[in-house]
Design goal:
The chain has helices at residues 26-32, 51-62, 76-80; strands at residues 19-20, 35-36, 46-47, 105-106, 112-113, 118-127, 136-143, 150-155, 165-166. It is α+β, with helices and mostly antiparallel strands and 167 residues long. It has one domain. A 3-stranded antiparallel β-sheet has the order 6-7-8, with no helix packed on it. It is globular.
């Protein structure tokens, strides 16, 4: 429980056709959970958080009342990152039991990047490109070198971690 929300304390690790282990190594699924294309499905009673739900989490953690979305927190990563597992001393304090781990990401060409250094999580919120096509969705990012949590949109065929929030 973080504020008024109940979040999973680890990355989703359900084997689906739209998921992979980082570098196709099963031990990485054990450590970081699976990486998923957008969209994916959380277990019954849970759902993928929207931008607004991520914003609410981050504002609660850092005490900010900004209304921007996706909210870019300069401090929430410190409190949400696990106390171990991040490269170069980039661990957090895990004050809320969120245990964010740097599972990296995969791209549509089959490459994998930044495990140990960065964590990327899908949101349920879609984004449109300049032509009005809905081929992107928002994601959140934490890195080893700073305490911030950033939001941006990416192509839906990228592979990112998923956190679920209780319905």
């Amino acid at each position: 429980m973080i504020g008024e929300q109940v979040w999973m304390a680890e990355n989703l690790n359900n084997n689906t056709t739209n998921s992979k282990c980082y570098n196709n190594e099963p031990t990485n699924c054990t450590t970081y959970g699976r990486l998923y294309k957008w969209p994916t499905v959380c277990p019954s009673g849970w759902h993928i958080p929207t931008n607004a739900e991520w914003d609410k989490l981050l504002r609660y953690v850092d005490g900010n009342t900004s209304t921007s979305s996706p909210y870019q927190s300069q401090t929430a990563g410190k409190y949400l990152k696990a106390t171990s597992g991040w490269d170069s001393g980039g661990n957090g304090t895990d004050v809320y039991g969120f245990r964010a781990l740097p599972g990296g990401y995969g791209n549509y060409l089959g490459g994998y990047y930044t495990a140990g250094a960065g964590g990327y999580w899908w949101t349920a919120s879609e984004d449109t490109d300049i032509m009005g096509n809905v081929n992107k969705a928002y994601r959140r990012y934490m890195g080893y070198g700073y305490d911030a949590v950033y939001g941006n949109s990416e192509g839906k065929n990228s592979l990112f971690s998923v956190r679920c929030v209780k319905d």
